[in-house]
Amino acid sequence: LISAGKDQVKKHKSKSVICGYPISIFFIVVNEFCERFSYYGMRAVLVLYFKYFLKWDDDFATTIYHTFVALCYLTPILGAIVADSWLGKFKTIIYLSIVYAVGQVIMAISAISDITDTNKDGTPDNMTFHIALSMVGLLLIALGTGGIKPCVAAFGGDQFEDHQEKQRSTFFSIFYLSINAGSLLSTIITPVLRAYECGAVKQQCYPLAFGVPAALMVVALIVFIVGSGMYTKTAPQGNIMVRVCKCIGFAIQNRFRHRSSQYPKREHWMDWAEERYDKLLIAQVKMVLKVLFLYIPLPMFWALFDQQGSRWTLQATTMNGDFGILTIQPDQMQTVNPILILVLVPIMDSIIYPLIAKCKLNFSPLKRMTVGMFLAALAFVAAALVQIQIDNTLPTFPSKTQSQAKFINMLNTSLTIKAGQNDLELLPFKASDDYLTFDDSFILNLGPGVDQAVSLPDGNRSTLVIIKDGREFLNGFEKLLNVTVGNELFESIVTNNMSGYINVKKGNAVFGISDGVQTCTYQLTLGFGSSYTLIIPPSLTFGQECGGIESEMDISPNSIHMAWLIPQYFLITAGEVVFSVTGLEFSYSQAPSNMKSVLQAGWLLTVAVGNIIVLIVAEAATLEEQWAEYILFASLLVLVCIIFAIQAYFYTYIDPTAIEAQFTKREPDEKEKRKSIEMVKKDSVENHNEKRKASHSSSSSSDEETKQTRI
């Protein structure tokens, strides 16, 4: 879409056509479907990969996620300039698709923990290696997906002849449908692939979740290359954006040179470019700048909108995704957006807008965009309300100057814990009811006259197990015990020792416990997000079921259902439909015919800046509560919405075609000039012949007529 201008086309001698459409466009549509599946599939699980595989905190994961998205929307400008100025669209798509596919493969490799997990505990031993691979992969993906973004649609449009306007219009509709189909299917499928367990230590399968999008990108590249012989390819003719930038730069430079008061002022600062550029181009640049000025507040909308893949996905990880027979993964909630788009776009166009028109309300494009921004702000208010309810169900974690601990007594005697004025008594083989918060160290009384001072790191939440030799966990039985989950060996736990945590699917979990001779089972119903500690005392009895085991809940299950996220997704999607679709339509209606690409570049730039705003807020804001951050974003968007409404109030709609026509009349194009000259020559010759037949004129008169003929 950024690629502009009427290029010189290298036409084939014959072009294969099916139902009036060039066969080449089918390769382009399939290519776009696979590429969008690859991009959105990888992006759907990206923030969870940062959090659970690379072990980054929520803020840093959000920062890197939005940095990546911002790069994806900055590189289209580079891709358009390269395609139009040097390589052409076809070669640009080929070369950058190779870069893209390599980046996806690198991302899939970076997620394989077994590469550096020498001790097979499920955690990479060299995390720096995996982080470095991930960053290289994301950088290549951003360069690839952004670089081809402006080329593919324009390349598809090049496949049609001038008399195929109807087919070209239908192609763009099918092209847009392929984008939505790819994004919808990928956001459904890749979270399911991620939820599979794989590797030497069974855990979430990020290599598969990234590997399938990588394979689809390779397929996209192969499909595009297969159709190479059928394409109509255009030669690079220069990029209009470069010309616009040079014109603006010269106007600024020239104005600065003539800043003295002795030079007369001009009506508009762009008029200072008249010394080098024609008035038509300057008038077109003025129209573009007028719209770009309106774009200044728009990044704030995208700052909220793109948090669906970061903050809102992380929000869903603390909620219950049980939908009866279906279990929804947190990253699958992103599918609500494309589904609602398919529903809301026809409703808005066929019902809502016509009803408003019948009510004789002036619901202009800029007013629609203002409403869209307000709906997005409401969506974040809804997100804040949901977050408050979630926070009420979550444990109260310690501040940066405090510590928390839960105690489990594995001794066959009672213990006393002294913290300030409060004493806690622990019975044998029992745990404290909840986590205790400490500002300083505390005293652990292990018996008469035996006191031990314990100090915990600030900001930590710990489970302390008291056994004979110190703080460990958690097999009090006199023999080594093998614990299995399903058919998989969980861990072998020696006497007076502990196991690590293991991820178990929600529902009724069955643990098998064996001492090598006897076997029993222990059942525990697990909810989303819950965490338990199981205590095996010396009094463990074997039978069909294990006797004596006690379970201690460390974190309660997520009780707020993911369905409560649907209202905020509805509001943000309704805002997108009203804002984004209308914004593009408005921009195109107010842009000169040959500079729609410049406004498309400006539109993509607002998306990039919006993501930069998110990463700045995520790193700079000192808000400890997530709901407060949601309210902050909503408040900023409301403020920006008011500013945009004021801009819209004073904006005067223009007709670019009429303005261009004024300059066209003054400055005819080359065709009209040639035609005019030919007519003058023809008239002069006819007049000259008639005069020769009528009489012989003087030699001076004859010479003058010959001069006119030559002109």
UniProtKB/TrEMBL annotation:
One of its GO terms (cellular component) is membrane. Residues 665-711 are annotated as: Disordered. PROSITE patterns: PTR2_1, PTR2_2. GO terms for molecular function: symporter activity. It is found in: Membrane. The chain crosses the membrane at residues 21-40, 60-81, 93-115, 127-148, 169-189, 209-231, 287-305, 339-357, 369-390, 562-586, 598-618, 630-651. It comes from the Eukaryota. It is a multi-pass membrane protein. Residues 665-689 have a biased composition (Basic and acidic residues). Keywords: Membrane, Peptide transport, Protein transport, Symport, Transmembrane, Transmembrane helix, Transport. Pfam families: PTR2 (PF00854). Coiled coil: none annotated. GO terms for biological process: oligopeptide transport; protein transport. Belongs to the major facilitator superfamily. Proton-dependent oligopeptide transporter (POT/PTR) (TC 2.A.17) family. PANTHER family: OLIGOPEPTIDE TRANSPORTER-RELATED. This is Solute carrier family 15 member 1. It comes from Sphaeramia orbicularis. The gene is LOC115433821.
